[in-house]
Amino acid sequence: MSEPEQRPPYDHQTTERVQPKSRSFVHALRQINARMVLGALAAVALIVFIAQNTDETRVNFLGWDWDLPLFLLLLITIVLSVVCTEIASWYMGRRRRSSR
Known about the structure:
Layout: H1 25-31, H2 34-52, E1 56-61, E2 64-69, H3 70-99
Antiparallel strand pairs: 1-2
């Protein structure tokens, strides 16, 4: 058996130059999908929400007292609820798989 011929990873002998593809504005617009539009609208809505809810709010929790801007309190609440929901769904799915 003979050894396979060793070839370089690319051919140095070619003289053709590959031109980069130019993208037109219309082509870029076609790449925009619904997720991008909804994401941009959500970002704008979040910025408006933050700008309108900058008042300080007193928070009392388990004996601790502190002042937070309202938007920060609501964003923390939303993030914690999403995290708790994900943990609970992961745990329930794990429980279902182990009971089979």
